[in-house]
Amino acid sequence: MSRGQEISSRVLTVPNAVSFVRLALVPVFAILIVAHEDVWALVVLAVSGVTDWLDGVLARSLHQVSRLGQMLDPLADRLFIFVTLLGLAWREIVPLWLVAAILARDLVLALTVPVLARLGYGTLNVSQAGKVATFALLYAFPLLLLAEAGGAVGATAHVVGWAFTWWGVALYWFAGLQYLAQVRRLAVRG
């Protein structure tokens, strides 16, 4: 969102409709990954990535930035990360420690919500590190799924996918620590 752009409380906006479509794709993806329909699962992830980009562009260009949209976008990101991670772990494509590392960070941050509410704050803005971490993870998981294809494509996807995974997890925790520091500053000032 650009500085000075008004944030509305409207629910029925074009960007929010795009976000709702993205949220509706989460269970579709879950079914496809469990059913080993990897090509279709990758298509759904690609569509989700496009809608993630599109809802932000539309919100800014149509001047339809809304409180609901600001909640839906990170919610859809978290749900896709969570469902993809669980699906890949269920298929034994990623280890359980990766699931634990990512979920532990989200659990720690969820514990700050009551503190922020008590201080009169809503959710805090996503940091640049958090955006890059989410980007890295949302690219890592499709690549790790693509690595199941084998051959040169699979081998390349495996290496690049794990590179994105390591960077994503590191930045995810770095952004989480930034968020905790921000909550602490608000609590001290509070």
From TrEMBL:
Gene3D superfamilies: 1.20.120.1760. It is a multi-pass membrane protein. Keywords: Lipid biosynthesis, Lipid metabolism, Membrane, Phospholipid biosynthesis, Phospholipid metabolism, Transferase, Transmembrane, Transmembrane helix. The chain crosses the membrane at residues 12-33, 39-59, 71-90, 129-147, 159-181. It is found in: Membrane. The keyword Membrane applies. It comes from the Bacteria. The keyword Phosphoprotein does not apply. Belongs to the CDP-alcohol phosphatidyltransferase class-I family. This is CDP-alcohol phosphatidyltransferase family protein.
